[in-house]
Amino acid sequence: MTSGNTPTPTRTTAGSELEELLAAPLGLRERKKLKTRRAIRSAAFGLFRTQGYEATTVDQIAAAAEVSPSTFFRYFPTKEDLVISDDYDPLMESGLRARPVGEPLVTSVREAMIGPLRQILAAERDEVLLRMQLYRDVPAIRARALVEMQRNSAVMCELMAERTGLPATGLELRALVAAVMAVSSETVQFWAEHGGEADLADLLADAFGAVARSFAQ
Amino acid sequence: MTSGNTPTPTRTTAGSELEELLAAPLGLRERKKLKTRRAIRSAAFGLFRTQGYEATTVDQIAAAAEVSPSTFFRYFPTKEDLVISDDYDPLMESGLRARPVGEPLVTSVREAMIGPLRQILAAERDEVLLRMQLYRDVPAIRARALVEMQRNSAVMCELMAERTGLPATGLELRALVAAVMAVSSETVQFWAEHGGEADLADLLADAFGAVARSFAQ
DNA sequence: CTGTCTTCTGACAGTAACTCTCAAATTCAA
DNA sequence: TTGAATTTGAGAGTTACTGTCAGAAGACAG
Question: Are the C-beta atoms of residues A102 and A108 closer than 8 Å to each other?
Answer without folding.
Answer: no
